[in-house]
Amino acid sequence: MTWVNIIIQGILVGGLYALFAAGLPLIFGVMRLVNIAHGDLIVAMAYLAWSIIYITGIHPLLSLLLVIPIAMGFGYVLQMGILNRALGMDILPPLLVTFGMSVIIQNGLLELFTADTRKLNAGALETGSFPLLSGVDIGYLPLLQFGVAVAVIAGLQYMFYNTALGRAFRATSDDSETALLMGLDKRRVYAWAMALCLGVVAIAGVFLGVRANFDPAIGPGRLSFGFEAVIIGGLGNLWGTLIGGVILGVAQGIGAQIHPGFQVLAGHLVFLLVLAIKPKGLFPRMHG
Amino acid sequence: MPEGRRLFASLSVEENLILGGQVKRTGPWNLDGIYSLFPILKEKRNAPSTSLSGGQQQIVAIGRGLMSNPDLFLLDELSLGLAPIVIKDIYAMLPRIVGNGLTAILVEQDVTRALDTANQFLCIQEGRISLEGAPRAFSKDQISAAYFGM
Amino acid sequence: MNASIARATKASRIAGVLAIILIAILVAAPWWGATATLRLIGEMMVYLALASLWNLLAGYTGLVSVGQQAYVGLGVYIMVAVTIYLGIHPYFAIPLAGLAAVLLSLPVGKLVFRLQGAYFAIGTWVVAEVFRLIAAQLGSVGLGGGSGTSIPTDVMRALAVNKFWRETSIYWITVVLGIGALALVCGLLRSRIGLALTAIRDSEVASSSLGVNIERIKFAVYVAVAGMTAMVGSIIALQKIRVSPDAAFSVNDWTAFVIFIVVIGGIGTIEGPIVGTIVYFLLREFLADLGSLYLMLLGALAIVIMLVAPKGIWGYIMARWNISLFPTGYRVEEKK
Fold first, then answer.
1. pLDDT per position as a tens digit, A94-122
2. How close does chain B come to A129, measured CA to CA in Å?
3. Could you tell me which residue, C152 or C76, shows the higher pLDDT?
4. What is the pLDDT of residues C281-333, one digit of tens each?
5. pLDDT of residue C208
6. Could you tell me how many CB contacts below 8 A there are between chain A and chain B?
């Protein structure tokens, strides 16, 4: 029964990894940018939530009401102020600028909060669970996490294909010059995309903080999990990213069972395996 | 209407048209109007825009431009990359488009076609207007001379 | 008018003479400098080498890797492993590290080359993490595991007869590697490969249509850089003596600082890493006490430079005064 439990827990944690990942294909799809500071931003959001909770004492999930708008505002400003300037024909500037951002965020958090680990306390939600099968307990938190991941991905899909904003994203990504003819300023479109991405990052950050201890240095690791979920699942396919996250979660769970120190490594190895056998991922969907 | 059509590949026909109306100016053109003028678009409204034939894509591009209810409609290289019979059909539609008092400026390589359709023409050589007026007022040779500068 | 094609500029000829003098001074350092000075210059040489190599990879070949620490750490552990287990003399461990890295970079390269752009970058980081995690598990084979190990004193003694010559030989090796990396980059760029790289950088489409095999050249550069990076890693092990997975595979030490050096100095120029290394060590002298603030400053500086003066300090100098210190370009010279 333990193996079934491991797999189920792995599936549930895959939801969290899909949350880490969700913003990445959105931004890449709209503006061909991969934000190296993505993981650090997730951690920064966890710290933001922690600070808000420290001041107000509200429940972490409630803090989302504040964290999400702040994150989105920050994303808009970040894109308009810095990242729009870095985007262009050359591949180096966006990479190096976001790399610089990653270093700044990590060290900024270190200065502000020290290297001590923190955690967001969600009270009963964390400890409660219900039995699914004998030997298999489903925790409320992991289930909620997975549900939120599904909701976020469904929301993003809907937005992308069924709303004016999504149309703007797709059109600008196809041909920003012609989009300009339609009154779509790509700088603003990109800023909205980044705002949306950071909104998702905020959700990911809060759930990260509730689930486990966090410290300023774990950003790149979270980015790698999100990135691996995207690559395993397949480029251009958000649902594939969810599946990728699940596969990663399960791989890590099995790895942890073999040897505690093997957990993260197992995930990396599965990722490299998929990269070797199916470089475009398991369910790639390239359009245009 | 841009040279080479430049439809949004990720968008369907209808989405391309809707995007054209993004600017939200008032005027006679809306989605229903475009569809009644060009029924083929209604038929293919949900198809990916780039899955249509060249001529049909051209119509989508025209429709998209009209959706913004312009006062002045610029058509850049209307016949570019299209088969002669398709060009003939598209030019046949032009009178209906400019019907409601819309002024259209046509940039064309296919001089004969353009001259047959236009009320006024301008021949521009190296940034200077070399000849202008009503097409019927000039002979073919005069226009060739102005166009090629010979 | 009689014209000929020359490779060197007047500036590069002067620089050539100055360089020879400078190298002579560097080589003589064990006699005019204190141990602390040797250590400092040795560190600078290490960073100069790493920066030149990363610049070749990213600035000239367009392969932005944030995972070069994989090969640095590999070099460190090869040095430790072969000297302890195979009893090989440390001097020979250095080329062995290079060879091991070349061999390992073949399958690794094949994998990461399946990714493009920023995904490639993250992929290289993941590979480095895999190396680090594996190294942390090596406790059972006596390589110290997570907490690391040290190079035994008898190995260090094997380097030379006494402390002075030990320090000197380690120092000379770093000078050879530092200057060597520069020479490698310069030589490569002067060669047909360099011409191909510049063509690729200017236009991939055009150069591939001319038959330039882009993928093969990029792969070859990746492998070569991996090899040399590992050799630098192996000397780092001798410099530090104490090794641990976190230190050997540190992103901060072997990638972040290196990237900052190259970006600030001038990416895509040979002189850039030199300028960058000097600037970095100057900044470190005065600001390192600030700890993480110092790193934030470096990051901010790199961002500002990327947005405002993407070619860095040297790029600015080169554009402003039209100087080039290394004879890699072509000029038409009039014969008088």
1. 988 999 999 999 999 999 999 899 998 88
2. 44
3. C76
4. 999 888 878 778 888 999 999 999 989 888 888 888 888 887 777 766 666 66
5. 65
6. 45
Please name the residue that has the structure tokens 């400092």: C40
Contact in structure between A113 and A229 (CB atoms under 8 Å): no
The residue among A30, A175, A178, A185 with the most chain B CBs within 10 A of its CB, best to mutate, is: A178
> How do strand B72-76 and strand B103-107 relate by DSSP bridges?
parallel
pTM over 0.95: no
Chains linked to B by 3 or more Cβ pairs within 8 Å: A
Three-state SS for C209-229 is: HCCCCHHHHHHHHHHHHHHHH
Strands C149-150 and C2-6 come out as unpaired
User: How many angstroms separate the CA atoms of A78 and A74, rounded?
Assistant: 6
Q: Determine the Cα–Cα distance for residues A168 and A31; give it in Å rounded to an integer.
A: 12
- Asked if B touches A (at least 3 Cβ pairs < 8 angstroms), the answer reads yes
Contact between C250 and C125 under an 8 Å Cβ cutoff? The reply is no
| Inter-chain CB proximity A174 and B20 less than 8 Å | no
**Does residue C145 surpass a pLDDT of 80?**
no
C65 and C120 Cβ atoms separated by less than 8 Å: yes
Interchain CB contact of A231 with C (< 8 Å) = yes
Query: Contact C302/A82, CB-based, under 8 Å?
Result: no
ipTM of this predicted structure: 0.87
Q: Does A91 touch chain C (CB under 8 A)?
A: yes
Look-up of token digits 């708008």: A69
Q: Are strands C2-6 and C331-335 parallel, antiparallel or unpaired?
A: antiparallel
A183 confidence band (pLDDT: 50, 70, 90): confident
CB contact under 8 A, A288 and B10: yes
